Amino acid sequence: TDLPNRVLLAERLQQALIRAGSKGAVAVLCLDLDRFKEVNDALGHTVGDTLLKAVAGRLRSCVRDTDTIARMGGDEFVILQSAAAQPVDATSLAARIVEALSAPFVIEEHQMLVGASIGIALSPHDGAEPEQLLKNADIALYRAKSEGRGTYRFFEKGMDVRMQARRTLEIDLRKALVEGEFELYYQPIHDLERNALCGFEALLRWNHPQRGMVTPAEIIPLAEETGFIVPVGEWVLREACAEAAKWSNHLKIAVNLSPKQFRSRNLVQTVVNAIVASGLSPGRLELEITETILLHDSAATLETLRKLQNFGIRIALDDFGTGYSSLSYLRSFPFDKIKIDRSFINGLSDGSAEAVAIVRAMTQMGLSLGMSTTAEGVETAAQRDIVRAEGCTEVQGYLYSLPKPAHEIAKMIARDAAAEATVDTASAA
Fold first, then answer.
1. What is the mean pLDDT of the chain?
2. Count of domains observed in the chain
3. CATH number of the domain that 326 lies in?
4. What is the pLDDT of residue 93?
5. Rounded to whole angstroms, how far apart are CA atoms 385 and 359?
6. Using 50, 70 and 90 to split pLDDT, how confident is the model at 417?
7. What confidence tier does 84 reach under pLDDT thresholds 50, 70, 90?
8. Minimum mean pLDDT among 183-192, 252-261, 334-343: which range?
9. Residues 88, 191 within the same domain
10. What is the model's pTM?
């Protein structure tokens, strides 16, 4: 982009603050492209780099000669507006930038809409030091993005503390993979016919150095939003396959794929590489996707699913019944299994005839299409007995076990094998 970097920006910002003194004002505008990661994932880094240069060109057309545009890395830019006499100057600049970047870009015959969000901090009110101004502009940027994107926001001291905490968590998330803070927990899946363990679902945990264990409910949305879900998902896949390769050959491992990870260009090769590196039999890997994935480019999605299945990998439709058009998807896509969402299983606790009928319909639908069924969120023996009576083939939930770390799973597998051996011996006698 031929723009100044972070170091040069810090020097110029320090000089501008000295010149402004206590009476003048300096505006710092933090800018983030709203849909750059989608372009990069879909069209590749070459197109992405060309797009960044085009963005830099439009930014130059918006600023004065005395202003500084710097690229901070990725799709993040900072604009230093010297001698901003009042907030209206920064407002005018931010509005020009949002408008300029909302117009379509055409790169190598690809037309794309990117857009931008901007956070603004003004000296001396929002900080008298470069680091403080940049931090507060970044917090304002995060607020702008959370409010729908394609807009700008000024920093306010009363901004939601949770917003600042979430931004800090995002920064920590980017370091977590390098620092080895992620860990997989495994929840057992039980075969109802054999009444025995048949596999595990891998679930991500983040052992944060200050906050302790962070759950997927916090990790996954944040990782999806930042685009960091792809490298995290690849790590989960490699780690889960490597761990499962240590287990008995009849035990499978289920791994969730996020929409962004599924649409990444190298998904099939990434999965194959994880299997080959671990030595795991492809038939023991089960990839779980949600109906959200099926909404985008059904032809390409179907091709990806078939490639994975041709390699021997099983595909499961997760959270069945909670999405958009479950019935049509079952006819169109080659699933091996459907997982009945826990919300339907919860209804069984009340003895609701309607809840039982819904579970029965889902189970029979899967069986008629040659798909096995797993009931998620089974917490009581009564729920287990109902889903078994209705033809469900597998269950998982707190009735059997909370998710456990890898070292505890080895003990669970040993206990289950011993119990099954005892049953076999008794049957033979």
1. 87
2. 2
3. 3.20.20.450
4. 92
5. 12
6. confident
7. low
8. 334-343
9. no
10. 0.67
* pLDDT range class, residue 348, cuts 50, 70, 90: confident
> Among the three residues 130, 157, 184, which one is the final residue of a domain in this structure?
157
Q: Is residue 418 part of a domain?
A: yes
Q: What's the per-residue H, E or C state across the chain?
A: CCCCCHHHHHHHHHHHHHHHCCCCCCEEEEEEECCHHHHHHHHCHHHHHHHHHHHHHHHHHHCCCCCEEEEEECCEEEEEECCCCCHHHHHHHHHHHHHHHHCCEEECCEEECCCEEEEEEECCCCCCCHHHHHHHHHHHHHHHHHCCCCCEEECCCCCCHHHHHHHHHHHHHHHHHHHCCEEEEEEEEEECCCCEEEEEEEEEEEEECCCEEECHHHHHHHHHHHCCHHHHHHHHHHHHHHHHCCCCCCCEEEEECCHHHHCCCCHHHHHHHHHHHHCCCHHHEEEEECHHHHHCCHHHHHHHHHHHHHCCCEEEEEEECCCCCHHHHHHHCCCCEEEECHHHHHHHHHCCHHHHHHHHHHHHHHHHCCCEEEECCCCCHHHHHHHHHCCCCEECCCCCCCCEEHHHHHHHHHHHHHHHHHHHHHHHC
Separation CA 336–CA 130 (nearest Å) = 56
pLDDT band (50, 70, 90) for residue 386: very high
In angstroms, what CA-CA distances link 94 with 62, 89, 127, 141, 156?
Answer: 9, 9, 19, 12, 17
- 178-187, 239-248, 298-307: the lowest-pLDDT one: 298-307
Question: Which amino acid, 234?
Answer: E
Using CA atoms, how far apart are residues 51 and 1, in angstroms rounded to an integer? 10
From CA 9, how far away is CA 78, in angstroms rounded?
8
Written as six digits, the tokens of 72 are: 């901070």
Distant-in-sequence, close-in-space partners of 113: CB < 8 Å, separation ≥ 6: 35, 102, 104, 105
Query: Residue 283: its pLDDT value, please?
Result: 97
Q: Is residue 191 part of a domain?
A: yes
